[in-house]
């Protein structure tokens, strides 16, 4: 019988990965972890491939119990992580003994926490990804009592570093501010807004409770179009498109967005900005910051470079402790 991870308190938790890259041509949303950076780091800290399935825990408390010794990593928004009541660090690998209860409680400042397990666990796939698709009804949220089959277990070990905390690997932890700064580049319809376009950067916007993984609704400064001849035809839109409907809200499309839309696109959120946007809670305030394409690419490469450097440190630490990383299977 395979070893399992049993969910005791599910809250709002889904099995995620980095999404259906390249499937937009078939009309499928890319989906995947809303905070791609935190999801990548969680898997890298466990020695997994960064695309491996992991858990996305949204807003509410979570608890689980493994049937075998495992190694986990918890990243994302600040939260209280404990094993059998003893506090454990985020953004570091943490050993959990068979039968011990791992809890994630008090998620704050951000919205989502990611939990990866060394070796990951089995998951159903659709078009190359286990990411949920709410339109198709694929990948529903987990319920209390759900069991996930572990692909690997971690041999029990007792090492001084496991109490310090474990590795002190200096993972690249992003900021979780009270007011978020979201980087954007120019959208394809910027010229239609003429002198009103700079208003996007002049005032804060508040995230509406109607926001979800499909997109965020923002309340704030109105941004009327100056060129209004004709209708905007439905067309392909990127993740991160900042759309301006006729009303008093902005729409910022996220990873669950449909592949076409028909509102003018004033700006597009950068790759690093999208991960930050995945952590913004309803009621929080965001400000947009303009970036050139060159600046956006540089920031993305720097973030990915930090994850690659972390991967090297993890492999060195695993080798020293004789933990066989999954990508070495």
Automatic annotation (TrEMBL):
Keywords: ATP-binding, Hydrolase, Nucleotide-binding. Residues 25-306 form the Carboxyltransferase domain. This is Allophanate hydrolase subunit 2. It holds the Pfam family CT_A_B. SUPFAM superfamilies: Cyclophilin-like (SSF50891). It comes from the Bacteria. Gene3D superfamilies: Cyclophilin-like. GO terms for molecular function: ATP binding; hydrolase activity. InterPro entries: CT_A_B (IPR003778), Cyclophilin-like_dom_sf (IPR029000), PxpC (IPR052708). The keyword Membrane does not apply.
């Amino acid at each position: 019988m395979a070893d399992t991870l049993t969910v005791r308190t599910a809250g709002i938790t889904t099995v995620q990965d980095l999404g259906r890259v390249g499937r937009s041509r078939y009309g499928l949303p890319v989906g995947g972890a809303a905070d791609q950076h935190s999801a990548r780091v969680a898997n890298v800290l466990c020695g997994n491939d960064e695309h491996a399935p992991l858990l996305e825990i949204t807003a509410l408390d979570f608890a689980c119990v493994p049937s075998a010794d495992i190694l986990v990593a918890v990243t994302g928004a600040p939260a209280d992580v404990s094993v059998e009541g003893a506090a454990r660090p985020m953004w570091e690998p943490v050993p959990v003994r068979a039968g011990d209860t791992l809890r994630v409680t008090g998620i704050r400042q951000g919205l989502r926490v990611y939990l990866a397990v060394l070796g990951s666990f089995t998951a159903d796939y659709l078009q190359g990804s286990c990411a949920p698709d709410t339109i198709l009804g694929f990948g529903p949220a987990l319920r209390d009592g759900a069991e996930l089959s572990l692909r690997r277990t971690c041999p029990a070990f007792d090492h001084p570093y496991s109490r310090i905390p474990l590795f002190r690997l200096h993972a690249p932890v992003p900021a979780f501010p009270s007011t978020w700064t979201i980087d954007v580049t120019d959208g394809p319809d910027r010229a239609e807004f003429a002198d009103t376009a700079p208003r996007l950067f002049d005032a804060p916007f508040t995230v509406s409770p109607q926001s979800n993984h499909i997109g965020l609704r923002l309340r704030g400064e109105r941004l009327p179009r100056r060129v209004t001849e004709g209708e905007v035809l439905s067309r392909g839109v990127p993740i991160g498109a900042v759309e301006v409907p006729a009303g008093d809200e902005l729409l910022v499309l996220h990873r669950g967005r449909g592949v076409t839309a028909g509102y003018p696109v004033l700006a597009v959120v950068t790759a690093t900005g999208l991960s930050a946007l995945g952590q913004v809670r309803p009621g929080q305030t965001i400000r947009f910051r303009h970036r050139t394409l060159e600046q956006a690419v540089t920031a993305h490469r720097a973030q990915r470079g930090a994850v690659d450097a972390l991967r090297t440190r993890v492999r060195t630490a695993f080798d020293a402790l004789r933990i066989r990383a999954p990508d070495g299977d």
